[in-house]
């Protein structure tokens, strides 16, 4: 997503919690292609770290126009077997992290800004073992809808993108080839989404053509549900 936004002409912040090397590689690729990027470490579950990340963006680029909230984890287990620490971590990153970033964005974005959160199309599927993940993302959609109303008068849009099964590490980790193949057939287009598919939707919402869309969840899932 960050590379697509850089290609669109945005100066970007590559945020990471762990994996400084990978984040720097992304920033170096953007720079090699003529874009501008800085790398900032921040745990989105920590409000002070989130504020420092926004400080770094403002100091480097003079202001903030678009925030894409795509940090997340996927812990899967039946609800009755779900461990307390896994529940707390899911809430901390998927929900509190999104809250921390959207709250800071709501304070700092310039007029005409865009806030784009990541949800999931799994919400509509009621898949066993996905209960806690679905709960966190349903809450994200609620925050998105309300914040869109609260931004009245500032010309700031707030939306969510809800991918279906997408070929990312988050989705692929821990799944057998047979399960991945079965889930890829859920869409009538009979394939997994690719990161570029989701980046294109984010690009639309961040760009001039997405300016009349706010308070919505765009389900980018190949017609899965």
TrEMBL record:
Alphabetized, the UniProt keywords read: Oxidoreductase
> What is the name of this protein?
3-oxoacyl-(Acyl-carrier protein) reductase
Q: What InterPro entries is this protein classified in?
A: NAD(P)-bd_dom_sf, SDR_fam
| Gene Ontology molecular-function annotations | 3-oxoacyl-[acyl-carrier-protein] reductase (NADPH) activity
Q: What class of enzyme is it?
A: oxidoreductase
- Asked whether the keyword Oxidoreductase is assigned, the reply is yes
Give the domain of life.
Bacteria
Q: Please tell me whether the keyword Transport is annotated for this protein.
A: no
Pfam families this protein is in?
adh_short_C2
Species per Swiss-Prot/TrEMBL record: Salipiger abyssi
Its family?
Belongs to the short-chain dehydrogenases/reductases (SDR) family.
What EC identifiers does the entry list? 1.1.1.100
Membrane spanning stretches: none
């Amino acid at each position: 997503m960050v590379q697509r936004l850089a290609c669109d002409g945005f100066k970007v912040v590559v945020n990471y919690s762990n994996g400084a090397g990978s984040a720097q590689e992304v920033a170096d690729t953007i720079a090699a292609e003529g874009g501008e990027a800085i790398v900032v470490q921040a745990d989105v579950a920590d409000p002070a770290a989130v504020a420092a990340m926004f400080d770094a963006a403002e100091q480097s680029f003079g202001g903030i126009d678009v925030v894409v909230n795509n940090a997340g984890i996927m812990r899967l287990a039946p609800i009755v077997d779900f461990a307390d620490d896994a529940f707390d971590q899911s809430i901390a990153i998927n929900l509190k992290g999104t809250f921390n970033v959207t709250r800071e964005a709501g304070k700092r974005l310039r007029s005409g800004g865009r806030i784009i959160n990541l949800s999931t199309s799994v919400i509509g599927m009621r898949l066993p073992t996905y209960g806690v993940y679905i709960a966190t993302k349903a809450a994200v959609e609620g925050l998105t809808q309300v914040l869109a109303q609260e931004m009245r008068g500032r010309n700031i849009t707030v939306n969510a993108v809800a991918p279906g099964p997408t070929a990312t590490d988050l989705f692929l980790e821990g799944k057998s080839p047979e399960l991945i193949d079965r889930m890829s057939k859920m869409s009538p287009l009979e394939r997994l989404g690719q990161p570029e598919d989701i980046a294109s939707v984010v690009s639309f919402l961040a760009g001039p053509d997405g300016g009349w869309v706010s308070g919505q969840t765009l389900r980018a899932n190949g017609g899965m549900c």
